[in-house]
Amino acid sequence: VLLTGQWSGRPSGQRDCAMLPYFLVVLLWFLVALVMPLTQSLHALQSPKGADDRKAWLCYWLCFVAGSWFIYYFEWLISIPFFVLSFYIDLYYEVQLAFIFWLVCPKFMGIRKVQQTLESNAHMIEPVLTEYFQVLSNFVRGQSVQFCDKVLK
Fold first, then answer.
1. Type and span of the H or E element at 82
2. For residues 111 and 58, what is the distance between their CA atoms, to the nearest angstrom?
3. Which of 49, 44, 48 is closest to 111 using CA atoms?
4. Chain centroid to CA 106: how far?
5. 45: which residues sit within 8 A by CB, 6+ positions away?
6. 88-122 b/e with 16+ CB inside 10 Å = b?
7. Over the stretch 2-57, which tens digit does the pLDDT of each residue have?
8. Which terminus, N or C, of the chain has the lesser number of Cβ atoms within 10 Å?
9. How many whole angstroms separate alpha carbon 92 and alpha carbon 71?
C-alpha cells in the first residue's frame, strides 16, 4: 500500500502538506527497506564469522514479510493517528522510513533489539503460534477433503 499511495481514504497520489515528495519517498523506501538490507545480508552470508549477522538479517526479512502483510491488511488501523495529524502535516510515510532506517542502519541496528525481544519472549509466542497453526491446518485439511469430495463425485 505504501507503493500505491492509498491510505486513509485519500485518492492515489494526493498528499497535502507532505514533507517529502512521493517519488522521493518511494525511492528512499526502496533503498532503505530493500537495497541496504540486501547488501548487508549478502555481506553476512559471505562472512565466515557472520552467524549472528545472518541470524539478524534472517529476522529482518521475516519481519519485513510479516510487516508487509500486516500493513497490507491493517494499514487503516495504523494510519488512524496519522490521519488526525495529516490535517496539519502528513508524516505517515516519513515515520515508516525513519522506522525502517532505525531497523537497518548499522549505527542503530534496531533489528537486533527486535530479535532480542522476540527471542526473550519466545516462550510466550510459541504456544500461541502452535495453537493457531493447528487451527489453520485443521481448517485447510477440512476444506481440502470437502473439495476432493466435490471434485471426485
1. helix 80-85
2. 10
3. 44
4. 19
5. 54
6. eebbbbbebbeebbbbbeeeebebbebbeeeeeee
7. 444 444 444 444 555 668 888 999 999 999 999 999 999 999 999 998 899 999 99
8. C
9. 12
For 118-130, the three-class secondary structure string (H helix, E strand, C coil) is HHHCHHHHHHHHH
- In this predicted structure, what is the pLDDT of residue 16? 54
Instruction: Spell out a b/e string for 129-139, using b for 16 or more CB atoms within 10 Å of the CB, else e.
Output: eeeeeeeeeee
From 119, 2, 100, 120, select the one nearest 60 (Cα to Cα): 100
- Per residue in 138-147, pLDDT (tens digit) is 999 999 999 9
* Contact yes or no for 33/64 (Cβ under 8 A): yes
Residues constituting the chain? 153
Give the three cell numbers for residue 118: 522476540
pLDDT in tens, 50-88: 899 999 999 999 999 999 999 999 999 999 999 888 888
